[in-house]
Amino acid sequence: MAIYHTYEAKKFNLPALEGISAKSVEEHLGLYAGYVKNFNAISGAIEELVKDAEKNAHAISELIRRRSFEFGGMRLHEKYFTQWEGRPTALNANGPLARALAKDCGSVETALTVVRQTGMMRGPGWSILYFDKEADAFLVGFTGEQHQGHFVTLPIILALDVWEHAFILDYGAQGKGKYIDAFFKNLNWDVMEKRFAEVQ
């Protein structure tokens, strides 16, 4: 049934990353694949349970809640890994994204500082740069779990994973700041510029 659509884990064209080990990336990709697998498994379970929806109402409701968590983890990681595909490139200082960030936030550096500061908040989650076309404005948000805390309907321009699994292998439990530095150092800004262009 289409409403219980299943997905396949994507492959990413990732170069060797500076400051983020191949082992860390490998384990992180395995976690991403787990989100895809779990989403599909939950979808299949719901499809069976709804055949007797009255009897299975409680189980269905809990699985539906969990399903959005797995989907959010899947999609956010796809945003995350895609940002490193190809090779690191600088943000075009004269391009539409840089100009829009400077106009709305004062400077590109100010906007990215907010992304970094949000990522440094206590606790695991994601620091996300969104764009609101209706307001012609950028927003930075934090989602502790993949399916909660989002600015609903706003497209994601940049997604920074700050769950411990993203950095603990390379930097230890206290190394989030060093990991965030490495995250930004490896970005292919062509990806974010394309995302921004697609929502204009």
UniProtKB/TrEMBL annotation:
Name of this chain's protein: superoxide dismutase
Enzyme Commission no: 1.15.1.1
MF annotations from Gene Ontology: metal ion binding; superoxide dismutase activity
Gene3D superfamilies on file: Iron/manganese superoxide dismutase, C-terminal domain
SUPFAM superfamilies in the cross-refs: Fe,Mn superoxide dismutase (SOD), C-terminal domain, Fe,Mn superoxide dismutase (SOD), N-terminal domain
Recorded superkingdom: Bacteria
Signal peptide residue numbers: none
One Pfam family in the UniProt entry: Sod_Fe_C
Organism: Candidatus Kaiserbacteria bacterium RIFCSPHIGHO2_02_FULL_49_16
Family: Belongs to the iron/manganese superoxide dismutase family.
InterPro entries: Fe/Mn_Superoxide_Dismutase (IPR050265), Mn/Fe_SOD_C (IPR019832), Mn/Fe_SOD_N_sf (IPR036324), SOD_C_sf (IPR036314)
Keyword DNA repair (UniProt): no
Entry keywords, A to Z: Metal-binding, Oxidoreductase
Domain Manganese/iron superoxide dismutase C-terminal, residue spans: 94-195
Keyword Hydrolase recorded: no
